[in-house]
Specification:
Blueprint (H helix, E strand, L loop, with lengths): L13 H16 L4 H6 L6 H12 L2 H11 L6 H14 L9 H15 L4 H13 L1 H8 L3 H5 L3 H10 L4 H7 L7 E4 L6 H10 L4 E3 L8 E4 L16 E3 L7 H6 L7 E5 L6 H9 L2 E7 L2 H14 L4 E4 L14 E7 L14 H4 L4 H16 L3 E11 L8 H11 L6 E2 L4 E3 L21 E7 L9
Parallel strand pairs: 5-6, 5-8, 6-7, 8-9
Antiparallel strand pairs: 1-3, 1-4, 2-3, 9-12, 10-12, 11-12
Helix pairs in contact: 1-3, 1-5, 1-6, 3-5, 4-5, 4-8, 5-6, 5-7, 6-7, 10-11
Amino acid sequence: MTDAAVPAPAGPTLARLLTLTARAVQAVRSGRSLTDVLAGVPGPVRPGVQALSFAVLRRLGAAEALRAQLAPRRPPPAVEGLLLCALALLWPEEAPAYPDHTLVDQAVTAVRKAAPASAGFVNAVLRRFLRERAAQVAQAERRPEAVWNHPAWWVERVQADWPDHWQTILGQARLRPPMALRVNARRGSVADYLARLHAAGLSGQAVGGPGWAQAIVLDAPVPVERLPGFAEGWVSVQDLAAQRAAPLLIGEGLPAGARVLDACAAPGGKTAHLLELADLDLLALDADPKRLARVGEGLQRLGLRARILAADARAVDTWWDGQPFDAILLDAPCSASGIVRRHPDIAWLRRPEDIPALAGIQAELLDALWPLLKPGGRLLYATCSVFKAEGQAQIDAFLQRRGLPSDCVASVSPGHLLPLPDNQHAPSASAPVARADGFFYALLGKPATSGSAS
């Protein structure tokens, strides 16, 4: 999903967009991925519904607190969804998406079509909120969910993991992220592509520095269709933090034809980046055949080739040919707590028990894949998480399991990359946005003197 500003209802009415957005938000609250929900929204209205859904989910904690204050008796689901959407969009902002009177009018119109008997109730609740907005907001903000728009358990975990930065990390998740590009090194340079952007009336900045030799950050997000040469494979959309993976794994170089495993490859951005930088015999593995199809589509667009296989990386006996790998990328399944600003449904889909369950899967993957690495080889462990249980604590536990003498050496690597703006102050509505998402990287090497691949 690409982020966008909330649009004015140029085609469909705002009431229609609110109705569909309310359904999407209620589906997320019941446990469905927003990506899956949006796939079922009619194409012509999907961009508007997506933009409104993002805006509402970024204020869902506040909206739920207001709903509980203003309507303690929970209304029917369809009515509650519309009420939550309206309250989230009426929350005080420096630049509100719609005038208050327009939003109230269109929300009531939507309720009148969905549940006519509730139209007066919704109208009364919203108008009361506008009359008492300052007092109602102050009361709601006694709850951490309303202040930070994350579940309370999530707020507590980030506080415990990052006591010096927790407010900034949570605040950044409410902001629209920048759009970062990765120039295909086999097609041209960053300078070449910046010139193509300029010719197309677009602008961006080269990032440069270690791990970002092919990176550009656009001054403003645009649909991929507007990116010159996108269909021809000149460029891909990939966050800056994710662009660190391929350079870290390749390091000072891998021999031509090196056997590389991308163990959890979908949707394929890191797979493609590896192949853009080196000539590799690469196996792209993923347990989800549907998501794996995206890997093949991306490689085809970029003019790259890899072996693609659907399998659970932990079940080594079902897919491994017995030949060890020179390098392994393990971009492990995780909470995705570092990319909430791109996928605001994540915070509301996760449950506290998910974190230890995911950490267990990560440990199983590390233990299963390490024996497949050649002596002298390296494994890069990555997660798009800010939770230490899925990052440094996971690697510390793995190194302890290897014991002493160990066949595993931790190399210098970024560790936890936090989504902090350059000045690292607590964000407000006008605060600078962190350039990169939250990520974790650990590069592990197997000494060349190791006697076996086990």
